[in-house]
Amino acid sequence: MKILTIPETAQFLREHDRYTILSHRRPDGDTLGSTAALCLGLRQLGKAAHVLENKEITPRFAWLHEGLTKPEAEEGDTLVTVDVASPGMLPNAYTPLLGKIALRIDHHGSATSFTDLELVDSGSASCAEVVWDVLAELGVQPDRRLAESVYVGVSTDTGCFRFANTTDHTFTVAAQCVRAGARIYELNQELFETNTLERLKMQGWIVEHMKLLKGGEMAVCAIPRAVEREIGVNEDDMDNISNFPRTVAGVRIAATLRETADGDTKLSVRAVPGCDATRVTVRFGGGGHKGAAGASMKLPLTDAAKAVEQAMLELESC
Ligand SMILES: [Mn+2]
After folding, report:
1. Residues 22, 84: contact at Cβ < 8 Å?
2. What is the pLDDT of residues 211-224, one digit of tens each?
3. Which one of 124, 139, 153, 310 is CB 3.0 to 4.6 Å from 129, fit for a cystine?
4. Which residues contact 279 (CB under 8 A, 6 or more apart)?
């Protein structure tokens, strides 16, 4: 595996003519915006470029890939993944392509390499920023659609510029998107100021059912699958829901548990600055960052909730 710089990546992209670009499973705004932007940029350079159809794309982001996809990669296509940190992050339908992917463009700090070439900037808040820099190096002139695709990636991966990963480079790229015509007010309204009724009902359920520990410094909430079904939430509605109990004033660390389809439990922990979420998740074989961490627990929901509550009470402070 060879690590490329931005100019080397641009050179590689200049040298080939037919691209298929791959996003990750449970696709978010960053992988979808980044794949769209790279595809649009390469097309502007006269390349034949497509995004490989991702069956898990949700209605919220479907517009990003409109007119860009094809159902399958063809023989001779140069395959590029965007925002994919490990082979396990690829949708199942893409696994036959493993071993044939030429280049990985990414921003994840910890990753499992699976391509010959990679451009990874772990200092970037979003992969969209990396793609933007590569396209600038290639001399691409961003139009509104390209700029809005990048803006979706940058803004969603930073929680609209609120997360700790946000840098001056993030703002620079966002400013350049605005200059290229991105309608950020409309996008922000849609992405950050709009909730489905189901999501709001779920938040209401969490308020009623979360358990506050240590005088309100800690919160634990276990969400049964039956409740999700009854409220009618989908994965978009549940996106980053674990941050919600953390937003209660006084709460420094919050654990949210969800039941998986096979009866196990997915743990997500969120913490305020100065507090370390991984201190809870590592106890259950998970990992993550100080602010946001997770673990997969081979336990039924109620047992998992008890174990997590116990682990949190054992933290002398967070
Ligand atoms: Mn990302």
Report:
1. yes
2. 999 999 999 999 99
3. 124
4. 315, 318
Pick the CATH number of 2-192 from 2.40.50.690, 1.10.10.10, 3.90.1640.10, 1.10.1740.110: 3.90.1640.10
Is 66's pLDDT higher than 90? Answer: yes
Q: Are 25 and 56 in contact (CB under 8 A)?
A: yes
Task: Compute the distance from residue 153 Cα to the ligand 1 centre, in Å.
Answer: 7
167 is written with which tokens?
A: 């840098």
- Beta-carbon neighbours within 5 Å of ion ligand 1: 30, 83, 127, 157
Q: In what order do the strands lie in the sheet with 48-52?
A: 2-3, 117-120, 101-106, 78-82, 18-22, 48-52, 69-70
How far does the centroid of ligand 1 lie from the alpha carbon of residue 216, in Å?
A: 32
Q: What is the pLDDT of residue 7?
A: 98
**pLDDT tens string 81-93:** 999 999 999 999 9
Taking the centre of ligand 1 as the mean of its atom positions, its distance from the CA of residue 152, in whole angstroms, is 11
Question: How is the chain split into domains, by residue range?
Answer: 2-192, 197-314
The per-residue pLDDT for 57 is 95
Q: Is the dihedral of CA 67, 150, 130, 125 positive or negative?
A: negative
Ligand 1 geometric centre to CA of 24 (Å): 10
For domain 197-314, the question of CATH label 3.10.310.30 is answered with yes
Output the CA 20–ligand 1 centroid distance in Å. 19
- Report the distance separating Cα 240 and Cα 68, nearest Å: 28
pLDDT digits (tens, 9 = 90+) for 163-201: 889 999 999 999 999 999 999 999 999 999 999 999 999
State in Å: Cα 157 to ligand 1 middle.
Answer: 6
